[in-house]
Every structure is written in C-alpha cells, then in structure tokens.
Amino acid sequence: MRLICILLCSLMAYTASAQTGNGRRKKDRVPSYFGLQIRPVFPTRFIGESEITLEETDEDKIYFTSTMSQRVGYSFGATVRAGLGEFISLETGINFTQRNFDITYAIPDSNIVGSNDLSFISYDIPINALFYIRLADKWYMNASLGVALNFSPTHVKTTSHPETYHYISHSGYVTSKFSVGLNANVGFEFRTEKIGFFYLGGSANVPFKPIFDLVVDYNYQGYHSQEVGGVDGSFFSLDVKYFFPNIRNKGTQPNQGPIVQ
After folding, report:
1. How far is Cα 211 from Cα 257, in angstroms, rounded to an integer?
2. Suppose 124 and one of 59, 148, 175, 208 were both cysteines; which one would form an S-S bond, judging by CB atoms 3.0 to 4.6 Å apart?
C-alpha cells in the first residue's frame, strides 16, 4: 500500500509539473492531466447479486429471515491521466465510495417485522488502460479497462430491538482490508484547451470476492442463532469528470543555470 501511495504521488507530481512547466512543454505531444470526478453508484443484477437473504429454518418452521438489498450510493475522488500515446493513456487516482443497504427482517412465529439500514465505505485506486476514438474536432469517445485496488478500513454493524427480549444485529465483517476488483468504463469527452475537459460516461465495478461477510445474530431469552453470507458489492455508476487545462507559462523563459546578480 505504501508503494502504491508513493507511485500515485509521483504520478500526480509529474502531472502538476506538466501543467505548469516551461516553454519546452509546448513540444510535448502526450500531455498528462489532473481532474476530479463524482458518480452516483447503482446496484445491479447484471454483473452481480444486489440482494442477499439469510434465514434459519427447522424443517418447515422459519425462526427468522433477513434480507439485505443494495441501494443507491455515491463515490468521488481525484483522477490522474498520464499520456502514453496519441490515443492511449494510463488513468489512475483515488476514490471514496459509500455503498448503502436496506435491511428487512421478520420473526414469523412472533409476528415481528422490521427494517434498518447500513452503510459501507471503501477507498479504491483504479489502474486503467484508456483508449480514445476521435469523433469530431473536440469530441472523443473513451473506453477503458483495468483493475481497482480496494481498501476497506472498518467493520460495520447495526442492531434492532423490535420487542422485549428480542434482539437482532446485522454486522458487516471485512475478511480482508485489501482486495482487487475489475473496472470497465465507456463514455464521451468534450475537450477545450482553455477551460479543460468534460467527461460523461458509465462504469462497472466488479470485486473479485465479497466485499464483506453479512452476519445476522438473533437472540431471544437465551436462544441464539447466527447466519452468515457474502455480500457481492458490484455496481454500475454514472461518471462525471472534469480535467483541468494545462497551464503554460507565457513570455521568454530564463535559461537553465545559476542566477547572476
């Protein structure tokens, strides 16, 4: 993780120097850019499971049942685009992502039903190969594919006391703080030299393993039951990005070397 942070900081520093460099930067054919992005996060059944149901049964009797459904979340962060060629770049950065979940539960033999909610945060560093197709003078179509290095800092938990002596808790236990997922993006970009780049597109994020284990505990007057299942966490997102323009110094630049008084 330290090595990733060092590489990311070095890439950001290189991009910043490209944006504020001297007159020789005008000769650069493949500039780099720094930008910001924000995106709503939508659950989907097309690339993963957006819902998980856990229940305890004994023959035909259901002691309790609980369902967790992923709902709309959000993500935002910084993006660095390092040019590798005229129509290919390496895109990375760091993002904060919050996934939100609705929880419903039922204890049939006690006629108890209820609901709760849970939020789960993570940080990811995408590493994508980005390809361009030029559609018009200032319009481009982009497509990228890569991986995301994910960091999940903490467990989460919510509890419910629907009636006296009944206690239900839903916990999200992170089995590994670091994980890897698949990234895929496609979108359109409008480019200007003076005010920057504007990007609108969509992304798919698919973790290679569950982002956390859902643990449901039910207690009633000494009776305890526990059920466990993995939460997928895959999502689609609508991406809005803005890349700052490269700022080039005007006028004659000083020669390299010591300053003579």
Report:
1. 54
2. 148
**Residue indicated by tokens 């609901």:** 115
Place of tokens 């993963």: 48
The model's pTM is 0.80
Instruction: Give the model confidence (pLDDT) of 236-247 as tens digits.
Output: 999 999 999 987
Residue 29 backbone dihedrals phi, psi, to 5 degrees: -90, -25
Tell which residue, 92, 75, 100, has the closest CA to residue 127.
92
Dist CA 251 CA 253 (whole Å) = 6
Strand segments, DSSP code E, in 108-232 are 112-134, 139-151, 156-160, 166-173, 178-192, 196-207, 212-220, 223-231
How far lies 43's CA from each of 29, 69, 216, in Å? Answer: 40, 9, 22
Q: What are phi and psi of 91, to 5 degrees?
A: -115, 130
Instruction: Label residue 196 left, alpha or beta by phi (over 0 means left) and psi (-120 to 50 means alpha).
Output: left
Helix (H) / strand (E) containing 197: strand 196-207
